[in-house]
């Protein structure tokens, strides 16, 4: 039953992630959007270190960490932002909440593996400006965009010896990006629009090596190399 539930859960969540917007910033208009994922809560509390690993946490940015995993872990993160948008004439606070990551990590004896889904980047903004043209007619310019890039992944880590592990991760990226620019003239019912819609698909991979070397009884020297 556990395997069936997991298989059904991932497709359902992928529809939810595709529909959500994790950004309310005008800076998300550039590139593929504003990056959302910066590691799990455990790694963020360590300053975002990808080198951090132990036996009860999976580091999603370090596939070699699965080689040290001893217990099955289920991880879910929710991202909440409170943003102050200000201009020379007004200021406004906006709130936004979205899924940050969903991950399942499993030790399997001689190796460990994990899979999940991550909303990697988001586009979400709407900007309006009102100004007269050369003929004195007020023109409303509107810039808006939404969408984002989501990432599903599968990672595996294999311990070579008690203090050294290697790992690899394959990620499939997908998403839709929608941009629209509009202009309206005062007294004219219809406006002018320029719309761009992008469908993004792609793969990327990562390899890493992790070492956890005990020094005496109180210290642990951790090192990582990632490609």
List the helices and strands and how they pair.
Elements: H1 2-19, E1 34-35, H2 41-44, E2 73-86, E3 91-107, E4 112-132, E5 138-161, E6 164-185, E7 192-215, E8 219-226
Antiparallel strand pairs: 1-4, 2-3, 3-4, 4-5, 5-6, 6-7, 7-8
Description of the structure:
With 227 residues, the protein is mainly beta. The protein has one domain. 10% of the residues lie in helices and 58% in strands. The protein has helices at residues 2-19, 41-44, and strands at 34-35, 73-86, 91-107, 112-132, 138-161, 164-185, 192-215, 219-226. Strands 1, 2, 3, 4, 5, 6, 7 and 8 form an eight-stranded antiparallel sheet that branches. A hairpin with a 5-residue loop joins strand 4 and strand 5. The radius of gyration is 23 Å and the shape is elongated. The two termini are 36 Å apart. The model is unreliable at 1-20 (pLDDT under 50).
Features:
disordered N terminus; eight-stranded antiparallel beta sheet; 2 helices; 227 residues; mainly beta; single chain; 8 strands
Number of helices: 2
Count of β-strands: 8
Can you summarize the main beta sheet?
8 strands, antiparallel
Order of helices and strands: HEHEEEEEEE
The low-pLDDT segments are: 1-20
Mean pLDDT: 83
How many domains, in number, for the residues?
1
Q: Structural class, from secondary structure content? A: mainly beta
Short synopsis of the structure:
The protein is mainly beta and 227 residues long. The chain has two helices and eight strands, in the order αβαβββββββ.
């Amino acid at each position: 039953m556990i395997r069936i539930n997991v298989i059904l859960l991932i497709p359902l969540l992928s529809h939810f992630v595709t529909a959500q917007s994790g950004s309310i910033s005008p800076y998300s208009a550039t590139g593929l959007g504003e990056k959302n994922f910066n590691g799990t809560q455990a790694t963020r509390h360590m300053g975002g270190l990808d080198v951090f690993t132990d036996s009860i946490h999976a580091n999603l940015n370090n596939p070699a960490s699965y080689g040290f995993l001893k217990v099955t872990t289920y991880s879910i993160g929710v991202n909440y932002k409170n943003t102050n948008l200000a201009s020379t004439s007004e200021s406004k606070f906006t709130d936004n909440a979205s899924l940050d990551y969903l991950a399942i990590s499993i030790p399997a004896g001689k190796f460990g593996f994990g899979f999940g889904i991550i909303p990697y980047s988001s586009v979400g903004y709407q900007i309006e400006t009102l100004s007269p043209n050369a003929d004195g007619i007020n023109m409303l310019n509107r810039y808006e965009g939404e969408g984002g890039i989501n990432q599903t992944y599968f990672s595996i880590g294999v311990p070579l010896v008690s203090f050294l592990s290697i790992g690899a991760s394959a990620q499939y990226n997908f998403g839709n990006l929608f941009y629209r620019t509009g202009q309206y003239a005062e007294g004219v019912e219809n406006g002018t629009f320029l719309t761009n819609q992008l469908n993004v698909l792609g793969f990327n991979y990562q390899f890493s090596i992790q070492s956890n070397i005990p020094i005496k009884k109180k210290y642990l020297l951790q090192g990582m190399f990632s490609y």
